[in-house]
């Protein structure tokens, strides 16, 4: 019985995801959406800076700002070329999961701490992106995502009961 | 008429009453060599006969749901048989003896080949067909 | 023994004498590919049961929409272009469907018959499901509606706000128009977005027949 309850929790019907961000391969923010209150509201400019900071294409030596993703991949104790950079960031108030596709697009999911199976969530977001963004003839690659179908299906997946 | 051996005049008419393909051939039955034996003055008559049957077909096509309309018109001893495709393309055969079943089979084969022609992305409806392939069907049935 | 070095060869049927007066049937060079097969050697049912990946279709259709967008001046122009693409498909599909019916194939001679053919047989052959509804527009004698709750072509399409008039179902409308035209029911078919609560992508194909179609239909009822 306990096992069954755990399984239900793991599939995460009542998952609390705060926000989803998508970064293009140049580090530009192409999608940002809040789903639940919990994160501090930022101005759209701040979101862009956040995305750029996180991404960090610039090499560490010339970087004026701290470029989180680039730093983590460079300070990795193993061979730096194989390091995929930061994947999970946990704090008292939230957990962030990052997934980078082979083409360099990054998906960031912010959720409540101790949220299980976030990698499944992030994969599913990727899948919806592949379907409703990449297959949409009106989407220009690397540009901000304005796809009604993507919005709808993402909301249906993350907040199914609202 | 053309003596003992039967000759055929076959024409495909497009949706705007425009000819897409025409051919003449003789019978292949009973040792026929497939060479048309129309007299010279008969040859252009065939075109007129085929053309005049179009009015009959336009009447008949609303009375029947069949694609094969059998013999639709007669002029002296010459019959016109018609097969009407879904896209309103008319396959007409001018012949001098009535024989519905072999002609149906001939038309069915031609329709098959017409469909294949149409599947070619470089071919559009109402374009002239420049392949001689339809004569192969005549060899089998007529 | 008789092998030729050229990848193309002329079939023997091409050598038969052509009538002098028939310029239409000028001698032809049917080309054979390396496999020595022309389009006439392939069976038309070869692809009858094969299925196409939905993704592959979505990408292809997306490219088609993008291509059509390059040469147009507005939404209406774009829809017309998509309609034309669909029209070419419809012309071919109609003949193929009737061919597959073999001896039982029937041409439809009545408005209702052809509309049912479209919303059932044709729709099922293309999309593996029948259209959701077929209705007559009450106010107008010459208008009919076929609706599709979730058109396959629009599955991944999100139309931007500035083009809200657009429905890429214009492609399907073109297919329908070609089938109607083929059966001598000339009509204008347009696609309109008509969302319902359950189906946000619901599309209605509005069919407006030309006056002589109704005239003919009335004569047939009278006779």
UniProtKB/TrEMBL annotation, chain A:
Q: Which UniProt keywords apply?
A: Endoplasmic reticulum, ER-Golgi transport, Golgi apparatus, Transport
Predominant location of this chain? endoplasmic reticulum
One Gene Ontology cellular component annotation held by this UniProt entry: TRAPP complex
InterPro entries found in the cross-reference section = Longin-like_dom_sf, TRAPPC
One Pfam family it belongs to: Sybindin
Does the UniProt entry include the keyword Transport? yes
Where is this protein localized, as stated in its record? Endoplasmic reticulum; Golgi apparatus, cis-Golgi network; Golgi apparatus
Q: Origin, by domain of life?
A: Eukaryota
Picking any one GO biological process from the record gives: endoplasmic reticulum to Golgi vesicle-mediated transport
| Subunit structure and binding partners | Part of the multisubunit transport protein particle (TRAPP) complex.
**Family assignment from sequence similarity:** Belongs to the TRAPP small subunits family. TRAPPC4 subfamily.
Question: In its UniProt entry, what is this protein called?
Answer: Trafficking protein particle complex subunit
Q: Which organism is it from?
A: Drechslerella stenobrocha 248
UniProtKB/TrEMBL annotation, chain B:
Per the UniProt record, one Pfam family is: Sedlin_N
InterPro entries, alphabetized: Longin-like_dom_sf, Sedlin
GO BP term, example: endoplasmic reticulum to Golgi vesicle-mediated transport
A GO cellular-component term linked to this record: cytoplasm
Q: Which named protein is this?
A: Trafficking protein particle complex subunit 2
Annotated organism of origin: Drechslerella stenobrocha 248
Q: The organism's lineage?
A: Eukaryota, Fungi, Dikarya, Ascomycota, Pezizomycotina
TrEMBL record, chain C:
Task: Name the segments for region: Disordered.
Answer: 1-23
Q: Which GO terms describe its biological process?
A: endoplasmic reticulum to Golgi vesicle-mediated transport
- List, alphabetically, the CDD domains matched: TRAPPC5_Trs31
- Keyword annotations: Endoplasmic reticulum, ER-Golgi transport, Golgi apparatus, Transport
Predominantly, its location class is: endoplasmic reticulum
Query: Pfam family of this protein, just one?
Result: TRAPP
Q: Where in the cell is it found?
A: Endoplasmic reticulum; Golgi apparatus, cis-Golgi network
Keyword Transmembrane in record? no
Keyword field contains Thylakoid? no
Q: Which residues form a coiled coil?
A: none
The record's SUPFAM superfamilies line, in alphabetical order, gives: Ligand-binding domain in the NO signalling and Golgi transport (SSF111126)
**GO CC annotations on file:** endoplasmic reticulum; TRAPPI protein complex; TRAPPII protein complex; TRAPPIII protein complex
| Start-end of Polar residues biased regions | 1-16
Against InterPro entries, the record matches this protein to: NO_sig/Golgi_transp_ligand-bd, TRAPP-I_su5, TRAPP_component
Q: Which family does it belong to?
A: Belongs to the TRAPP small subunits family. BET3 subfamily.
| Oligomeric form and interacting partners | Part of the multisubunit TRAPP (transport protein particle) complex.
What is the stated purpose of this protein?
Answer: Plays a key role in the late stages of endoplasmic reticulum to Golgi traffic.
Q: What is this protein called?
A: Trafficking protein particle complex subunit
**Organism from which the protein derives:** Drechslerella stenobrocha 248
Query: What high-level taxonomic lineage is stated for the organism?
Result: Eukaryota, Fungi, Dikarya, Ascomycota, Pezizomycotina
């Amino acid at each position: 019985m306990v096992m069954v309850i755990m399984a239900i929790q793991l599939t995460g019907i009542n998952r609390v995801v705060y926000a989803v961000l998508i970064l293009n391969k140049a580090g530009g923010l192409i999608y940002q959406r809040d789903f639940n209150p919990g994160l501090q509201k930022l101005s759209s400019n701040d979101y862009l800076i956040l995305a750029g900071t996180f991404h960090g294409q610039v090499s560490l030596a010339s970087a004026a700002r701290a470029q989180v993703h680039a730093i983590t991949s460079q300070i990795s104790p193993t061979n730096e070329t194989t390091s995929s950079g930061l994947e999970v960031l946990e704090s008292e108030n939230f957990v962030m999961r990052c997934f980078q596709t082979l083409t360099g697009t990054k998906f960031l999911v912010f959720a409540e701490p101790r949220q299980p199976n976030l990698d499944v969530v992030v994969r599913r977001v990727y899948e919806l992106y592949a379907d409703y963004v990449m297959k949409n003839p009106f989407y220009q690659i690397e540009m901000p995502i304005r796809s009604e179908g993507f919005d709808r299906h993402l909301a249906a997946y993350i907040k199914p009961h609202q | 008429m053309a003596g003992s051996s039967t000759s055929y005049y076959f024409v495909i008419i497009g949706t705007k009453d425009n000819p897409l393909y025409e051919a003449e051939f003789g019978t292949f039955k009973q040792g026929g060599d497939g060479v048309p034996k129309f007299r010279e003055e008969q040859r252009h008559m065939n075109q007129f006969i085929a053309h005049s049957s179009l009015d009959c077909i336009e009447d008949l096509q609303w009375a029947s749901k069949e694609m094969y309309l059998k013999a639709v018109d007669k002029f002296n001893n010459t019959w016109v048989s018609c097969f009407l495709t879904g896209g309103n393309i008319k396959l007409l055969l001018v012949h001098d003896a009535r024989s519905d079943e072999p002609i149906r089979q001939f038309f069915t084969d031609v329709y098959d080949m017409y469909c294949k022609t149409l599947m070619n992305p470089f071919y559009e409806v109402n374009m002239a067909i420049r392949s001689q392939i339809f004569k192969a069907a005549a060899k089998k049935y007529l | 023994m008789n092998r030729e070095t050229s990848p193309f060869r002329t079939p023997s049927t091409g050598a038969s004498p052509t009538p002098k007066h028939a310029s239409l049937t000028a001698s032809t060079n049917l080309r054979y590919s390396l496999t020595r097969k022309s389009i006439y050697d392939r069976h038309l049912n070869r692809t009858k049961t094969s299925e196409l990946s939905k993704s592959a279709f979505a990408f292809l259709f997306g490219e088609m929409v993008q291509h059509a967008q390059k040469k147009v001046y507005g939404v209406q122009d774009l829809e017309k272009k998509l309609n034309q693409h669909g029209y070419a498909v419809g012309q071919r599909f109609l003949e193929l469907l009737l061919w597959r019916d073999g001896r039982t194939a029937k041409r439809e001679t009545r408005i209702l018959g052809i509309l049912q053919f479209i919303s059932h047989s044709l729709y099922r052959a293309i999309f593996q499901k029948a259209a959701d509804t077929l209705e007559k527009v009450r106010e107008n004698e010459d208008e009919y509606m076929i609706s599709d709750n979730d058109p396959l072509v629009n599955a991944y399409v999100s139309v931007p706000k500035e083009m809200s008039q657009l429905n890429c179902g214009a492609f399907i409308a073109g297919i329908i128009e070609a089938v109607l035209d083929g059966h001598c029911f000339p009509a204008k078919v347009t696609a309109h977005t008509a969302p319902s609560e359950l189906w946000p992508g619901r599309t209605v194909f509005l069919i407006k027949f030309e006056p002589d179609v109704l005239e003919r239909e009335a004569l047939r009822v009278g006779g």
